[in-house]
């Protein structure tokens, strides 16, 4: 199927449309992940960067900048910045989650060690700040450093909410906004800011990224209970890590006394047996928790499309609208 | 003893002189370590920030700014930035080194967990970038984001050089410049930059911080073999972690065949017995490695003083010269 074919994935069609700029972003990433003194740094980074991630976040920056008619050189720096922040976060996440697999390969903390993942992550954070400083645009510096703080805050909140059955949907949304949506919304917002667009347009770009990121994360959390090998998700990871994601929160909210005792045992106490995951899924089904989670993902996707609909017409806009459908397609 | 007494420690006299500004810095630190959503963040940060660290690095920024006649408000932001970068680094270091004690108290990774230390460190990094962005000065943003990258690079280099007997004095110097001196030199340099001083003065401030930081770290590494309870150092920590610090590198360089076999066993293979540390110290003594390390620390201290001597006369300059003596006083 040709990439111009409207049946191709919107993500691949965006990549084809932004090919020249993406090539420039990849060149910046390769150049800036180098280290004069410490060869361990590019080794660890390359393992992750070249593992075939979708480059979704940098593509959002490039797409937003082009949608806004930006003609300068700095959207490339900003897209690389966004990917570096994302990669740094993944390295630290894998340490925090004690993960063994990412993108179908062993994680860096397993191949090297936790120490390397922590320090190379720090290096990439610093590199991302160097890159954004080169744009000379103080407003994008504010947006991206705010996003970095919000991401870390969301991750800490997730950590303290884990294993805690009193976690509310409000707290869940704060976690999701932090750990995922903050970088999506910063990625689209800075595209409008460097193009010097009016405030309402910049705000709309933010809203699109925010809603897209929330939809994306809810789907990810749903697939942890609803997925199959085909979706590339490891079903049950969040369950084993006792994370309070939306399907669990919704099921707990409807639990009777016996069910509550089950959740206390598996999530709060962490005493899990082989058949607990299927039972958890059955309880979610019984209370419509999976269906309600899916509806929430679709509603955020709709919000993203509605925001994008307010922006200038054209091929990029249509693709970004399709992208909002695509992130929820796995649960459609 | 009064703080005006010339026999008081230069560090305490500086603190007295900069009391108003240091109070403002501490207020910014307390305000910015807060988190609306994640109370774990201020808990972990306070544990470290309020454990009675000397605030040496932020004081360097305040002192440099005042020496340069700066009258604006941003030296306070920059000093808080420097302290946040330092605190973030300590949190991550303790995870990397698997430390149990810092400043005489259990480390955060022990009191909470490694996850909290990693994520709260990330939060403080992000906060530091927010703070420096508020100065609106792109040159200080470049200097401080470069320093953050150099620090991480130095830490990774230290990690890969550990246990490797072929580590040279050149590599050691790169590690020290990275993990310690980069933040000292950035701290003093930005003081001159925000005061808009001429290039040669800014460069001299950098040189002072660089030499001071190197002297400081060499002394720290020396005390790991030469210290006593009185110096507050845990003798033997670096030895147990098999770090290639200057005393080891110098002793290995002079080792005969039997001695080399000893170093291979304890450092490369990590097979350490109870009496290995005294034996290592005896070998260092035999080859004058501790004395040579001490001489190197003194020579960097002298370089720092020489640099400071080229800056405008006055009380601050005299105190910064005394400070260069003070950092090596523990091995004088």
Task: Report what the structure shows.
2 copies of one chain form a homodimer. Chain A has 332 residues and is mainly α. Chain A has helices at 10-17, 19-32, 40-49, 56-67, 74-96, 108-111, 114-134, 138-161, 169-194, 199-226, 237-240, 246-253, 257-268, 276-286, 289-309, 315-329, and strands at 101-102, 105-106. Chain A has a two-stranded antiparallel ribbon. Chain A is globular and about 60 Å long. Chain A starts with 9 loop residues before the first helix and ends with a helix. The interface between A and B is large, with 45 and 46 residues.
Summarize the structure.
The structure is a homodimer of 332-residue chains. Chain A is mainly α.
Spatial ordering of strands, largest sheet of chain A: 1-2
- Radius of gyration of chain A, CA atoms, in whole angstroms: 20 Å
Distance between the termini of chain A: 22 Å
The topology string of helices and strands of chain A comes to: HHHHHEEHHHHHHHHHHH
Q: Fraction of residues of chain A in helices?
A: over 70%
- Sketch the major β-sheet of chain A: 2 strands, antiparallel
In percent terms, what proportion of residues of chain A is strand? under 5%
Overall number of domains of chain A: 1
Given the structure, what is the number of helices of chain A?
A: 16
Report low-confidence residues of chain A grouped into runs of 5 or more.
none
Number of DSSP-assigned strands of chain A: 2
Mean pLDDT across residues of chain A: 91
- Report the CATH architecture of chain A: Orthogonal Bundle
The first-level CATH class name of chain A: Mainly Alpha
The shape of chain A, in one word, is globular
Q: What would you give as the CATH superfamily of chain A?
A: Farnesyl Diphosphate Synthase
Q: Give the oligomer, counting copies of the same chain as homo and different chains as hetero.
A: homodimer
Main interface pair? A-B, 45 and 46 residues
Cofactor (chains A, B): Mg(2+)
Catalytic activity (chains A, B): 5 isopentenyl diphosphate + (2E,6E)-farnesyl diphosphate = all-trans-octaprenyl diphosphate + 5 diphosphate
Protein name (chains A, B): Octaprenyl diphosphate synthase
GO molecular function, one term (chains A, B): all-trans-octaprenyl-diphosphate synthase activity
